[in-house]
Amino acid sequence: xxxxxxxxxxxxxxxxxxxxxxxxxxxxxxxxxxxxxMLHGFPHDEVRPIACEGVTRDKDETNLxxxxxxxxxxxTLIDTLDxxxxxxxxxxxxxxxxxxxxxxxxxxxxxxxxxxxxTIRTLGGLLAAHTYASSPDLGMQIQNYGGELLTxxxxxxxxxxxxxxxxxxxxxxxxxxxxxxxxxxxxxxITDACAAGGGSxxxxxxxxxxxxxxxxxxDAAEKSFFAIWELRSxxxxxxxxxxxxxxxxxxxxxxxxxxxxxxxxxxxxxxxMSGDERFWEVYSRSRRAIDTWNxxxxxxxxxxxxxxxxxxxxxxxxxxxxxxxxLDVLTGNLKRAIRTHLTHMKLWNTYAGIPERWxxxxxxxDLEWYPLRPELIESxxxxxxxxxxxxxxxCGRKIMSDLNLRNKVECGYAGTQNVKTGELADRMExxxxxxxxxxxxxxxxxxxxxxxxSRQFIWSTEGHPLYFDDRVLSNSxxxxxxxxxxxxLEDVNGTALICxxxxxxxxxxxxxxxxxxxxxxxxxxxxxxxxxxxxxxxxPWSTLLRKLRNDGTSVVKKGMMADAExxxxxxxxxxxxxRPTCAAILDGDMHDxxxxxxxxxxxxxxxxxxxxxxxxxxxxxxxxxxLTLVARxxxxxxxxxxxxxxxxxxxxxxxxxxxxxxNINKATGLLNFxxxxxxxxxxxxxxx
Length: 688
Prior knowledge:
One of its GO terms (cellular component) is mannosyl-oligosaccharide 1,2-alpha-mannosidase complex. This protein is an alpha+beta fold.
């Protein structure tokens, strides 16, 4: 027997009931965002979650930050329709489709928009929703639906093709006016393009061509893709910045984050959907180049290098690169995916979000904002589906908890303007519901049909499930042209969608949690904790990447599990700890919080008020009970329940509303409090 089979692994409490509760919590998160948009934002492009008002294009046409994404139609609803379908909410899906058709007759808008963003958000959203509305196999078919969403998608696709007019080399203009074609913005033509923008049209244009039987869309997308590939260096590295008019290189940097990310993503995904070996060749050559020049054995992130020389040029990683583990999952390199994901998860754990850019040389934030991006939760979802390791459920729970604690506001979820101070930005982009909320829901909804669908579909870079399977699309084609059989890949055996290299764990035990590299990260990188989170993030529970315990007594030792030993059978054996017996407190009495105690184990809230006080209430165990917390005079207060619970996992809840009833499952230790007033604690009945 190999010694490493006896290594203890981390246990998390994720019973079917707790997973259902987390799924419901993720649905509540979505509901708050969606209902806020429909009440305060629709039919505008977006909703301002703090101001509680709709927002659309800026009259100042040079405001590209808004106008690139906002064309004057309800893009948030279009981008969100298939999320309603994924959640099985047929009535709301039908209503959403009806509202889109009521407010969008066509795309004859005098609006200059970015081709890439309009393609992935609006065109992709229309195509996915059309598939759900027309297919009898997906459970969302709308009675008497006549293909109106496909008609809109075709109209939009034709207008986006205006960006290709007069272009011999194939790379489209990055922006196009949907009524007038190519025109100047602010008195000049903006020709800055990038690898991702010109190379990430394949899935949406490909599906539009399939449904309409008109190859002009995919022909244009493929020509642009290969035109960008021709700009690679002898090292097969792609530059990030391109002048679309002259093909002059405007940024010689090469990396896997912003401006390049989805080029590699669509190379792989379009190969998986089309079976065209040319795209696999591009992906595999690009990946070899990235592994050679953009990585180093001693680091887990990807460098930005000069695309000609291969030398490092920028000492930072950006938040968009958090998606890259998904490609490793799709190609079966799980060890690499796990490492990259851990690097970004550690960043999240440090800042309660991922800063747009973070410098690994001096552990400083380079760009401070986090606009609710989905890339980390997307990778978490992929890794959980591949490994079934409960560590990724814990990551998802942590992310969802932080979003609710840090970013939830009156009318939705506000992005973080500065992760170092906690300042919020009054914006909720459409991808929050299209991707972030959707991947959280699917992570916890393990029985969702999409999680076990072996038919030919792929997630787009905007989180739209795009089906290329003729069995699904039997009623989805345009009636003008005959159908033809699908050419893509097919899982004829309907096998479980899990990487065969990893055995499916049968209990709440984590391989990833016991991997020695979990806490090697602290030696590899230094992480600067922002002042407003520092007291909270110093707690052992929130440091996922540390020496983790199985049952509170046995510590995983460094070096126990070698990388080479991540083989089948890894989950087969573990040392099980003795779980404590849980005895619920059911007296129903009010308990006063003590004051003036030793506060070494009590943690401050997000900000420190000058006259705030600290208190605590000790208890032996709480298991399946309700706590009613009553704050006095409606002052702000913060609650922390901390301790090793019956499952061997550390459990914490935070609440910052004056009065709340809180469900507590399996917690022992201290109930910690800090605020201006003293809450009373009532311990109530068992949770039904």
